[in-house]
Amino acid sequence: MTSSTALHTDPPDVASPDSDDAVLVVRDLRVSFHANTSLVPVVRGVDFELHPGKTLGIVGESGSGKSVTCLALMGLLPRARTSISGDVRLGERHLLHMSERELQDVRGKKMGMIFQDPMTSLNPFMRVGRQLSEMLEVHEGLSRRQAKRRALELMERVGIPDTGARYQHHPHQFSGGMRQRLMIAMALLTRPKVLIADEPTTALDVTIQAQILELIRGLAADFGTAVLFITHDLGVVAGIADEVMVMYAGRAVEKAPVRQLFASPQHPYTRGLLQAVPKLYEGGPLIAIPGAPPQPHALPSGCAFRPRCRYAHDGCAEDIPPPVHTADGRMLACPVVEKAPFPTLLDDLVPTTPPPVQTSLDLDDDLHALPDEGEADAERPPREFQDDDPEVGS
Amino acid sequence: MSGPSTTTAIPTVRIRNLQVNYRVPMYRPFPQRPQRGEHESWLSFAASSTTFVARTLMSLMAPLSEGVVRAVDGFSLDIAPGETVGLVGESGCGKSSTGRALLKLEKVADGTVEIEGTDVMSSQAGTRTLRRKAQMVFQDPYASLDPRMTVRDIIAEPLRGLRAELSARQRRERVASIMLQCGLNPSDGHRYPHEFSGGQRQRIAIARALAPSPQLLIADEPVSALDVSVQAQIVNLLSDLQKTHGLSMLFIAHDLAVVRHVSHRIAVMYFGRIVELGSAEQLTERPQHPYTQALLRAVPVADPNTERRKTQLLIDGDLPSPLRPPSGCAFHPRCAQATERCEQDPPLLKIGKLNHQVACHVAHDEA
Asked: Could A278 and B191 be called an inter-chain contact, meaning their C-beta atoms sit closer than 8 Å?
């Protein structure tokens, strides 16, 4: 890894203007997995903080490190086979230095979590009511009766009908949406300060997804919970997040308040993602990002998005672009765009507009090919077995 | 997207009243555990407890009876040459069963399927025609490719069986040309599926399906396992191939936005039936069926302003149990506009207010 000449990165603790009321502060989080003889970097320096009643959305494709980030926060990665560094503070406590025992107390009490598949998180042999009330007995020392009353209240609050009877049921007797409601009830039972939701609606149908999102939104506002919401769906994040962080290959490439990010995305990857999303009220070809995300054990040098980026130039291969806080309150990790920002989302789609950087080696194809001319994928070979331009559709 | 020529006399596929049933074993309800207080003595409690365990084990092993689920319940559709019909619905609505039944991957209980005028369901010869003329792309490109075959062999395999007249040389040429068309490099033919990324694998699956030059391509959730950036590549590839080959395509997916991009017409399925069928533009912009409306509003849009403007968009509840289908219109328990008639009368699919078909009493009355 090249050591960059101390470019203007934010000093870890001091600079962030609003870190005073932050409930969870994450600084330079790095996670590597041990593989045979080498270390595979999966999360490569992530900073963010969570604020009460606010939702931070993390978007990224599979392998971008978003789920590993949240597992690392919760201390749920196998300690023997992972190296974690950085600083994670929940209030005054440093989570990364805690013993397993201390973590047990934090998990469930101070931090709740919801996962993608509720069935694997619920005990199939235990009646759901008992699973809920047990938590209260363990974490808050309530009596069995008090715990039951609280559990029933919360089951009702998350929209489970007929709670009296449902309390006695086993998880398999619930539908997928109802199970996710149960998980949410379970996660919020002890009124945690932080809720971590890792793709909580991915396994659900859209109509049920809408119900669950509504529920999370409402509860977070009522309880003042800080939510970390991880998803691959830009539509979901647009609806639920106050601030959005876009991750690519283990690093945050852009972070901004939600409206700002969607109105004027800056990083070429963010722009590519937004353009690739199918729109409900438009037909016709989509604008794809060529190539595929890199494997964590074979990352390109410098900016990881470089091989797929239409604005990449020589300099991008040298240093990993440092996160820079721009004047409009956004974090951006792309020196190219930083110098020549895009005004709106569709700017680089108009072929007459020159891209911000002219000195590019292999830009020729990209410049002249309108992205919707058939196979956008073939414009630039991202891997060696894609060398020929297939000319589909001609 | 310009519509295909619908004037041709024979549709590529004519499906009439397709029906698929699944048999589901029904078990006894889980017995109530005996309580200690209900017994006079320890002995009778222990005895009833033992009976409880024995009964539970037995009921787990022996199903009480068999229930029948109508996964596809009278499905009729024509697909014109060069036309893409999108089939959308929530999980369990029967969309995948429909696609699989068309290829005889599920047992068809009733109904006819004609491909270019030939009945393919009833005879052995029909099955051979079907295999040659209709091919499928599956959802999971990790499961649908044989890990021990090279890419070249995977794509050539359907040619060996279905295009036996080709010489080995012609076959090689065909494999190379189809790989090129699908955005694969023919010099990678000797590689194995695990050497490719998810998007590349789906290209291989598409190449395999197109190799025997089918008239109909059934794509069952072909992009839902892929990331957004790669998903767009595959969606575009399928659209392009469909145009260049003049294929008819049945594009099955749960994501309305994706379906909107590839389809000429869209059919919305609920509970084994088509509830609305119309042109892609009309159906997404002016949906008639309350279910389609709810579905469309539930699709998350990548725009914070739109997302936050949505108020009371939800339909309540889940899909009803397929073992106990609701009477009348299957959507009535979740429908805000349901009337008494909806509880009794199942609505038929017919032309509504706009020039497309809808199965809803309320929409019919307005027309």
From this structure: no
Which alpha helices (DSSP H) does chain A contain, by range? 66-74, 100-106, 118-121, 128-140, 144-157, 163-166, 176-188, 206-223, 234-240, 258-263, 268-276, 335-339, 364-368
Q: How many cross-chain Cβ pairs, A to B, lie less than 8 Å apart?
A: 190
Find the CB nearest A392 among B181, B303, B319. B181
**A225-251 tens-digit pLDDT:** 999 999 999 999 999 999 999 999 999
Kindly report whether the global pTM for this prediction surpasses the value 0.90: no
Task: Please answer yes or no on whether A234 and B302 come within 8 Å at the CB atom.
Answer: yes
Q: Is A43 helix (H, G, I), strand (E, B) or coil?
A: strand
Both tokens of B182, joined, read 């699908």
Cα–Cα–Cα angle for B128, B134, B135, rounded to 5 degrees = 110
pLDDT tens per residue across span A76-102:
899 889 999 999 999 888 999 888 888
CA atoms within 13 A on the CB side of A262: 22
User: How far is residue A50's CA from residue A25's CA, in Å, rounded to a whole number?
Assistant: 7
CA-to-CA dists, residue A136 to A108, A147, B123, angstroms: 10, 6, 64
CA quadruple A61, A67, A73, A78: dihedral, nearest 10: -130
> Measured in whole angstroms, how far is the alpha carbon of residue B179 from the centre of its chain?
26
Chain B CB contacts of A178 under 8 Å are 318
3-class SS at A158? Answer: coil
Mark yes or no for CB contact A207/B180 under 8 Å.
no
Tell me the C-alpha distance between A377 and B231, whole Å.
11
B286 vs A contacts (CB less than 8 Å): none
Q: Which helix (H) or strand (E) holds B127?
A: helix B124-133
CB contact under 8 Å between A235 and B302, yes or no, is yes
Compute the distance between CA of residue A132 and CA of residue A142 in angstroms, rounded to an integer. Answer: 12
Task: List CB contacts (< 8 A) between A276 and chain B.
Answer: 228-229, 231-232
C-alpha B258, offset from chain centre: 14
Find the CB nearest A283 among B1, B244, B255: B1
Q: What is the pLDDT of residues A48-72, one digit of tens each?
A: 999 999 999 999 988 899 999 999 9
The reply to whether residue A61 touches residue B240, judged by beta carbons under 8 angstroms, is no
DSSP-derived 3-state class of residue A197: strand
